[in-house]
């Protein structure tokens, strides 16, 4: 210790006087076993009513809940000082992201709660938490008696080394045997138990509730010291994965309430062993194994296997987006039901079938889905889109589900009211008829339909609405729908099937009548602290990449702008001033797309007329002042008018092929794109981005970041300009770019 506690108190009090904007976490650091926890405990004695939380074995979310509850129930008024001990040993697994999540996210961000100012002091071991601390408010304890595990290569050390590879702190002898066998040092349970009893300074033996002997290192500091000296090689981890996979695939009774100790260990630790072996993707794509893995272990494994982000459209991405939606089941069966649902929504039918076959008797299961999964770019024909109004066409046996979405758009001062009405077969999810656009909401129109408000006492159909307190039924009888995230808003039960609707579409589930479904609040909507991972950059869609190479460019553009929307020009319609070969080829082979009413863009192809040459505004002697460009002409032209974009005329430079704004209105940025192909490719991608309904902020941000990256790849010079920067960062258009009814919810 560099100085007595009495001399440190002045430093601590100076920290406590900091205002919130300057407040940092006060760190007590130093190597393991130098007395950090004891020092923090002495501080606890000096600061009355301080809040003590030992983070050992706890997740960051659990620590956050303890911090919130302590601040909420603290009997004395005033500010709170929270002391976080053993931060470096947080997490159920020994290889864990929880220490970093607490140190990097939770502790620095917890400055105020429930009207109280909060100061956080935390214990850090720099060898286990590579977090940059604020050295101005830090106490570093000296390394007086470092832990030095045995370094010889005797058989005893090898078996202790094998135990250090365990991911749980305490394991039964059967798991230790498995680890020894994988490391090439097989041993009987009697031999291992005798070894543990002969090394009480290293290992501790206890018994669980059933009397089964379990073994662990005497301290977390010691096991991490052994891990540093004797790291487990990837080849050994691979053998552990193989043995655990066999155990978890064949548990007694083929269910996840494992009575076999090895299978129980595997359900919690197998994903991390696979991540350390480099084989996590294969495990995740095996539904038979995935179904038996607990979510906590899976999320921890993602941080090791994907430090640069989960790959696009992978099983890892499915797990990541389940976490960011706040789906946090309390039971394994409920978790597998959501895994199965996510796989079906993503079109992963083989994975979904494997999950079902591995876990009979789910509390509920999805039978069909029109629900859009997060983490995908672009439009999907199978998605129903957001549902605002939900009901049935009638109460007879041939009743169909009816949904409506408010698609009102246009300027706020003059909205164009419209609603998309759709009907669906409740047994299969097949669309019963073509979608219809109407001018009034269902509740306002004269429609033959039944909803929760119009049902009668004799109606056998049950309606339910999702609130902050969970599901509320009308009538309040029968089983409840599954516990859902807040994006699911309404439900209707016809016979034994619940059809659920919300921000991402509709889907139908059957529930297990044997299961008890008590009323529960919805999932929180997002992780309490932060997601374990992030998404890796999404790849440019294959169709877009092919179109940029010149393969089916016209077809790709017309897919979004409309059939026959690209108007080709004959060679004799091209003015001689258009000398750029790429531009001439685009105009004659692909054609100029006709676009209106979004992105402040209006393109009107010339029809049978040649393109019209215009001067750069300001060059003509008679040009009115208000039409003069705010910048000099970027070239000598000639310039041809294509339409308008962002309050200025959109011009084609015939010599260079560049697309320019004449800057008579809006931002003073002339360059729109380096070519027609680049401009319409970026517009086409933006159009697909804005039309793909994204109810979740994380999903939207990932899609927006990917769109910006693709545009930087397509035209790095133009995208650096002010206009594209504004657009890609979320420009608030006042045309039909966004649905007025959804902009505030979808794009924040």
From TrEMBL:
InterPro entries tied to this protein: SUKH-4
This protein's name: SUKH-4 family immunity protein
Taxonomy, superkingdom: Bacteria
Highest classification ranks of the organism: Bacteria, Bacillati, Actinomycetota, Actinomycetes, Kitasatosporales
């Amino acid at each position: 210790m560099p100085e007595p506690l009495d001399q440190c108190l002045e430093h601590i009090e100076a920290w406590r006087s900091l205002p919130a904007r300057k407040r940092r976490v006060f760190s007590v650091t130093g190597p393991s076993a130098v007395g950090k926890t004891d020092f923090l405990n002495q501080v606890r004695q000096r600061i009355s009513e301080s809040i003590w939380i030992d983070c050992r074995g706890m997740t960051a979310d659990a620590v956050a809940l303890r911090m919130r509850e302590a601040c909420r129930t603290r009997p004395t008024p005033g500010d709170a000082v929270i002391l976080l001990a053993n931060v470096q040993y947080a997490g159920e697994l020994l290889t864990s992201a929880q220490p970093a999540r607490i140190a990097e996210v939770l502790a620095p961000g917890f400055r105020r709660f429930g009207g109280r100012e909060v100061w956080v002091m935390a214990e850090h071991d720099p060898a286990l938490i590579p977090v940059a601390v604020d050295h101005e408010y830090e106490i570093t304890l000296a390394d007086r008696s470092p832990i030095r595990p045995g370094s010889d290569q005797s058989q005893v050390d090898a078996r202790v080394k094998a135990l250090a590879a365990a991911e749980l702190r305490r394991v039964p002898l059967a798991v230790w045997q498995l680890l020894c066998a994988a490391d090439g040092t097989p041993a009987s349970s009697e031999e291992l138990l005798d070894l543990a009893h002969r090394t009480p300074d290293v290992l501790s033996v206890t018994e669980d509730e059933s009397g089964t002997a379990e073994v662990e290192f005497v301290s977390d500091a010691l096991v991490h010291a052994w891990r540093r000296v004797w790291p487990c090689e990837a080849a050994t981890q691979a053998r552990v994965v193989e043995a655990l996979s066999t155990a978890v695939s064949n548990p007694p009774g083929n269910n996840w309430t494992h009575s076999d100790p090895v299978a129980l260990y595997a359900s919690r630790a197998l994903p991390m062993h696979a991540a350390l072996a480099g084989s996590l993707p294969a495990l995740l794509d095996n539904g038979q194994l995935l179904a038996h893995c607990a979510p906590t272990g899976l999320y921890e494994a993602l941080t090791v296997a994907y430090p640069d982000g989960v790959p696009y459209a992978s099983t890892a991405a499915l797990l990541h987006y389940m976490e960011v939606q706040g789906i946090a089941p309390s039971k394994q069966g409920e978790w597998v039901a959501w895994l199965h649902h996510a796989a079906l929504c993503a079109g992963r039918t083989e994975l979904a079938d494997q999950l079902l076959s591995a876990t009979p008797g789910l509390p509920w299961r999805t039978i069909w889905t029109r629900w859009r999964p997060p983490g995908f770019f672009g439009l999907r024909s199978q998605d129903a889109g957001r549902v605002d109004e939900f009901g049935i066409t009638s109460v007879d046996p041939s009743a169909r589900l009816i949904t409506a979405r408010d698609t009102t758009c246009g300027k706020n001062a003059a909205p164009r009211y419209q609603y998309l009405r759709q009907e669906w077969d409740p047994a299969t999810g097949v669309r019963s008829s073509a979608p219809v656009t109407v001018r009034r909401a269902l509740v306002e129109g004269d429609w033959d339909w039944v909803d929760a408000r119009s049902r009668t006492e004799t109606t056998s159909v049950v309606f339910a609405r999702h609130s902050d307190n969970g599901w509320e039924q009308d009538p309040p009888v029968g089983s409840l729908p599954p516990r859902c995230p807040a994006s699911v808003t309404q439900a209707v039960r016809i016979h034994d099937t619940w059809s659920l609707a919300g921000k991402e579409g509709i889907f139908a589930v059957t529930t297990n009548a044997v299961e008890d479904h008590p009323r529960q609040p919805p999932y929180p909507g997002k992780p309490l602290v932060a997601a374990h991972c992030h998404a890796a950059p999404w790849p440019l869609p294959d169709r877009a990449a092919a179109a940029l190479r010149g393969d089916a460019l016209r077809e790709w553009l017309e897919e979004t702008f409309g059939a026959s929307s690209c108007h080709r020009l004959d060679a004799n319609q091209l003015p001689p001033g258009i000398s750029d070969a790429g531009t001439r080829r685009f105009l004659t082979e692909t054609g100029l797309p006709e676009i209106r009413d979004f992105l402040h863009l209006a393109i009107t192809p010339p029809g049978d007329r040649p393109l019209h040459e215009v001067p750069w505004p300001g060059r003509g002697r008679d040009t009115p002042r208000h039409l003069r460009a705010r910048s000099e002409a970027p070239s000598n032209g000639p310039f041809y008018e294509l339409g308008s974009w962002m309050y200025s005329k959109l011009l084609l430079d015939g010599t260079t092929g560049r697309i320019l704004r004449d800057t008579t209105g809006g931002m003073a940025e002339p360059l729109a794109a380096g070519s027609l192909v680049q401009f319409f490719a970026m517009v086409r991608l933006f159009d697909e981005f804005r039309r793909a309904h994204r109810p979740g902020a994380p999903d939207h941000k990932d899609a927006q970041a990917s769109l910006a990256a693709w545009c930087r790849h397509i035209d790095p010079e133009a995208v650096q300009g002010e206009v594209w920067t504004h657009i890609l960062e979320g420009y608030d258009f006042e045309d039909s770019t966004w649905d007025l009814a959804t902009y505030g919810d979808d794009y924040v």
